[in-house]
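seq:
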Amino acid sequence: MTEARSTTTRAARPGSGGGDLEGTWTADAADVLSANLANLGGVPGGLTCSGPVTLTFTEETVTWSGEVTCRMGDAGIEATGSLRSEGSYRVEGAEIVVSGSRTSGGLSLAGRSIPVPAGISDGTVRYRIDGDTLSLSYADASVGTVTQRYTRGR
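struct:
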């Protein structure tokens, strides 16, 4: 990671996004999936996903991980697995800039491993902390603006 510009603040100090970013934040996979697909008409009928998703910020590293189970309606189709991604980050005002991200894991369906492009990736997201809620917003050309919400871990 290169030397941070003078506009960069350490995560432990509140940036313009408010509050202390460092620590652990959690959400349910269903909520993350719903947020990601909201602009595309929502989660396809019959698909449900659940399981804890954890977002952890330390001084310069961000890690996103989850133990997820997804089911497709009454068809009896179920996929389970572990997802993980991590990278370096810095805070610039009300934005988190991620670099060097790596993703691993996936879901297992009928004995076959399926890679899942979930987690964090290189880029910039806007953040806002309101009490124990962290909101992350980013724009993606294929889905529009996405806002995910996480709750501070205890």
